[in-house]
Design goal:
Length: 63
């Protein structure tokens, strides 16, 4: 019995500079596209992660 792994993957390629056809995507600041999120999803991410962007530190905290 042979297993066909490629039937589980889409072999069509979409460049990062174009949206995926049939998906709700919005342009991002880097020139590519990302999935659109609503305000509730953005709030949930903020509550879980603590910020909308990445956390950056310039020096270790502590005494």
């Amino acid at each position: 019995m042979s297993i066909k792994f490629l039937k589980h993957f889409n072999t069509r390629k979409t460049p990062q500079s174009e949206p995926i056809p049939g998906k709700a995507m919005t342009p991002n600041s880097a020139g590519g596209y990302s999935f659109a999120v609503d305000d509730w999803t953005r709030l949930e991410r903020f509550l879980i992660l603590g910020s909308e962007g990445g956390a950056r530190t310039t020096r270790p905290s502590g005494p």
